[in-house]
Amino acid sequence: MKFVVTGGAGFIGSHLAKSLINEGHTVTIIDNLNTGKIENLKEILSQVDFVNGDIRDIELLKNKLKDADGVFHEAALASVQESFSKIKEYNDVNVGGTENILKLAKEFGFKIVYASSSSIYGNPAKIPIEEDDPKNPINPYAQTKLDDESLAIKYAHMGVRVIGLRYFNVFGERQSKTYAGVIKKFVKKVRNNEPPIINGDGKQTRDFVYVGDVVQANILAMKSNVDHGFFNIGTNSTITVLELANLIIDAFGLSLKPVHGPELPGDVKITKADISRTRKMLNWEPKTRIEEWLKSTIAAKTNLDLITD
Ligand SMILES: NC(=O)c1ccc[n+]([C@@H]2O[C@H](COP(=O)([O-])OP(=O)(O)OC[C@H]3O[C@@H](n4cnc5c(N)ncnc54)[C@H](O)[C@@H]3O)[C@@H](O)[C@H]2O)c1
Q1: Residues that are catalytic
Q2: How far is the C-alpha of 5 from the C-alpha of 204, rounded, in Å?
Q3: Which residues of the chain have pLDDT under 70?
Q4: Dist. CA 164 → ligand 1 center (Å)
């Protein structure tokens, strides 16, 4: 089949594009290399149609999306901290760009599976978080992701097939600074025998989900006969930031003590996904746990640059 991956030179998009190629599909990637890198595609570059382009450019999108069977929409500006100072740009890319793709899906009939975010829940009223729980974005980035969901609902009412996957904190090889940045920062420090610096008390919990599992969720969602809906993509388990720091220190066989700095504004305190709906409707199950992945990656040493670069 013919698929387009927006943001395909980024962390999640590049893993997704590789899996689609491995499954024998034809893949076009649209990415303006804002945070994405060509080197993320080095294993598949000769097998994909790579377009250095912007999702705000509707004519370019039209040209590339008109004969697609499906679009995996990963492109976005995704830094919570940066979103406070670039509200308009975040809105133009994340909301305007997504609406462009929805408009074209209405015109051409392809299915969309796109990256929503657990950040739309803000600080949740209860744990674990179910999809119908209240949405309370606490930063401009999260607001753009919630606005995308309103647009997705609007276009679904017009017959567009669109599924939003609410990723929790995605980790893995080539992870981006945004969500699993804490892993990156800690490993960087600890491998240099320096103590990791925790923002706040370290009691904030995170539900880390492996990028390979996220890729599977995307592919299952695209192939499923579910036309529309929103699904949590997490693991239903959590680790505190302090536990994470200590796990990394232990995995390196060191006895450092984490240092505490000030809390970050806009930082969510607790997250944990209820994934019953995703399990049931998409037949999806996360397979890789952060603890084991970190221990084996740190022990193997070979992949460490893929975590910290
Ligand atoms: N990584 C996570 O834990 C996480 C969690 C929740 C949601 N998400 C969402 O998942 C998606 C992928 O995130 P990621 O972690 O791979 O981040 P990433 O920054 O690695 O990937 C985003 C990609 O989009 C591209 N891009 C940005 N603006 C663009 C534009 N105007 N036109 C074309 N391409 C553009 C970037 O160059 C980059 O390659 C994003 O939509 C993000 O909001 C990620």
Answers
A1: 141
A2: 33
A3: 177-180, 266, 302-303, 306, 308-309
A4: 14
